[in-house]
Amino acid sequence: MTRSYVKPQPGVQTLKNLPPSTPEDIRRIAAQAGLRLPDALMNELIQSYPAFEAMVRRLPRARLKFDEPAHHCA
Fold this sequence. Notes:
Blueprint: H1 23-32, H2 39-57
């Protein structure tokens, strides 16, 4: 049985509705991060980034500090 201590709230903010990043966006993000990748690795990053991006965009935003289960007293 899975137990969650975080109460679901209506209207949880996520980034699921944003359009996916284009290959040019991914190249720009990599450049801003200081990554200088060979073409083969950049192409691999561009191919794998949509799965990573979709996963990260499903994470709830705007949570309070006390939503973390470690901050609850039993």
